[in-house]
Structure formats: C-alpha cells, structure tokens
Amino acid sequence: MSPTSLSVVSGSVIARAPSKVNLHLGVGPRRDDGYHDLVTVFQALSLHDDIRVARASDLTIAVRGEWANSVPADSSNLAARAAVALADWAGRPAKVAIDIAKTIPVAGGMAGGSADAAGALVALAQLWKLDISRDELAEIAADLGSDVPFALHGNTALGTGRGEQLMQVLSRGEYHWVLALAREGLSTPAVYRELDRLRESWSGQDLDEDELLRRPDELMQALASGDPHAVAPLLYNDLQPAALSLQPSLRRTLRAGVDAGALNGIVSGSGPTCAFLCADEQSAVNVAAELSGAGVARSVRTASGPAPGTRVLGDG
Ligand SMILES: C[C@@](CO)(OP(=O)(O)O)[C@H](O)COP(=O)(O)OP(=O)(O)OC[C@H]1O[C@@H](n2ccc(N)nc2=O)[C@H](O)[C@@H]1O
Ligand SMILES: Nc1ncnc2c1ncn2[C@@H]1O[C@H](COP(=O)(O)OP(=O)(O)O)[C@@H](O)[C@H]1O
C-alpha cells in the first residue's frame, strides 16, 4: 500500500468503509469452535461510516452520529482493537485518536463494527506509512471478526469458511435498496444460537451440510446479468427464521416493504435491519417514502450497491 502526501500535510487520515447485505447466507451446522461454516454472497452498500485517525499521545476513541450512544467508546471498540492489532504488526505503540462518524446501524446485521475496524486498518496503514499488502491487512482483519475482510474488500464477493475467505463475484449494474432500521438491535451470537435451537426443534435429524453450503450459482448468474428482477427472487438467508423468532415484528416489516412495491425483502445478515431490493432508483425512493409512513421501522434509508471497499478519502 503506497502512502500519499495528503496524510503528511495535516497528520490525519480519513477512511470510508461500506456496510453490507448478504444476498445469500447459507449456514452450516455449529462447529466445535462455536463458529458456523458459511457460504455467503456479500454486497457492499453505499451506507458507510467515516473513520478519521490522527497521531495522539494515547489511544482514544470518539463516536459521533445517530448511533453514538450504542457503541462502546473504549478499548473494546472494534476500531480500537484494529489499531492495537495493526500497531502490534508494525511493532509500534497504538498512539492514535480515532474518530468515527457513524451512519451504519449498530447491531443491525450490516457489519458496522467490521466497517469501523476496516476503516481504522486502512487509515492507520496510511497514517503510519506502513508497507503492508492487502493480503496482510486481510489476515489481521480476519482475526478481528469474520466480516472485517469483506469490509476491506467491498463490491460483491463470495464468502466461505467463517465468511472471511473471499472470492470476487462478477456483478453488473447498480442495485437499489431500501433499508428498514429496527428500533432494537440483535446480537449476532444470539441469532446463531437461535438458529441452532430451531434446527434441533425442527428435525432432530442430521443436517445435510452439502445442501446448506451449496454455492448459489443461480444467484451468481443473475448478478452477472445485472437484472434486479432476476436477483430478487433468489435472495436467501438461513439466519432469517432465527431473527424473526427473536423479533417477530420483523414479519410485518418485510410484508410492508413488498406491499410498498419492492421486488423482494430479506433480513440483512443476523438482522434486524430489513433490506428491500427495488427495480430502480425511483422505485426505491417511492418504497422508502411509503415504508416510512407505515411505522414499521425506527428509520428508513435508501442505499445502492455494490459499493467500493474501504478506502482513504484524504486528509482531514
Ligand atoms: C451474521 C454475519 C453475516 O455476514 O454478519 P452480521 O449480520 O452479524 O453483520 C456474520 O456471520 C457475522 O460476522 P461477525 O459479526 O464479524 O462475527 P464474529 O465477530 O466473527 O463472531 C461473532 C459471533 O458470531 C457467531 N458466528 C460468527 C460467524 C460465523 N461464521 N459463525 C458464527 O457462529 C459466533 O457465535 C461468534 O462468536
Ligand atoms: N465500532 C463499532 N461499531 C459498532 N458496534 C461495535 C463497534 N465496536 C464494538 N461494537 C459492538 O459490536 C456489536 C455488534 O455491532 P455491529 O457490527 O454494529 O452489528 P452486526 O454484527 O449486527 O453487524 C455492538 O452491539 C457493539 O456493542
């Protein structure tokens, strides 16, 4: 990664990191280490966080924006953990002030914490002028969380393993989304636990792992065609029943989005954000307006994808 002179002038660097939606999320049985193998197709969305880093005498963290009060402003913040991990890699102290402008919903299934970690990694690599490759950054990212490598990568990718092993997916055109943000978040581990519980109660028999972890070829072909009408019926999420079980009101939200004219709606990752794929930008604006009036969400946003991976915006 080559440093630019921008960061040198002011001593601070800003990185922009995208949110994500899982267009397909197949979840295997629980592994012995507590994780689940996944086959997922991520799409990065234009809804983003901006992460600014500047040299300081200590590691400090500040969070601004609508979601600031729901995020820990201490060493447990994923951006702070990313700073410590990168400083360890570089053999230097993590003396840096991190300032997060947060618009990605917290505990919303849109990988906001992962975005902040990716933002801190990219911004600090630039601030400290580190000679670190994207692959090395991705390795540090994977240790911070399963979704962090995708936040670095962006665009559209097939994720396997815990979700950290990525392969670029060919995607044509722009997809227009409406996001219904819920009033209460959902904890990712709790949603995976609920899926395990539901699966035991459903069948009592062994899960067909090959079927659960089948690559979604039809979806990938639809993405290459660039037609949202082809993509919409193929949206799939194994975690959706678990999220609905923990937050039953999401059923109403999903129905309301489709009734408002979306092509299809899905719980984003572990939820509770509901993501609605629309035919075009105008349709997304119309669906968002109608959904806002339906009173089924804390707030409603439009977003487009695929968005680029985490990147430096310039000096601050
Ligand atoms: C569900 C997904 C779908 O993309 O995203 P979100 O909806 O939370 O954003 C991801 O799997 C979340 O990834 P991330 O939030 O990075 O999870 P991690 O920090 O690695 O793990 C948190 C916890 O989630 C569970 N976990 C996570 C990933 C995975 N493949 N299997 C799991 O069982 C484990 O209980 C783990 O302790
Ligand atoms: N920078 C951060 N932004 C958001 N949440 C964070 C951050 N650092 C730590 N967290 C913690 O991680 C949890 C999951 O956050 P988040 O990534 O927003 O959700 P999800 O895993 O559903 O995508 C939050 O409840 C919060 O306590």
TrEMBL record:
EC number: 2.7.1.148
Family the UniProt entry places it in: Belongs to the GHMP kinase family. IspE subfamily.
Keyword Transferase: yes
Pathway recorded for this protein: Isoprenoid biosynthesis; isopentenyl diphosphate biosynthesis via DXP pathway; isopentenyl diphosphate from 1-deoxy-D-xylulose 5-phosphate: step 3/6
GO molecular function: kinase activity
NCBIfam families: ispE, PRK03188.1
Residues holding ATP: 105-115
Pfam families: GHMP_kinases_C, GHMP_kinases_N
Protein name in the entry: 4-diphosphocytidyl-2-C-methyl-D-erythritol kinase
Function comment: Catalyzes the phosphorylation of the position 2 hydroxy group of 4-diphosphocytidyl-2C-methyl-D-erythritol.
Domain of life: Bacteria
Catalytic activity: 4-CDP-2-C-methyl-D-erythritol + ATP = 4-CDP-2-C-methyl-D-erythritol 2-phosphate + ADP + H(+)
HAMAP family recorded: IspE
GHMP kinase N-terminal domain boundaries: 77-154
Top enzyme category: transferase
Record key words, sorted: ATP-binding, Isoprene biosynthesis, Kinase, Nucleotide-binding, Transferase
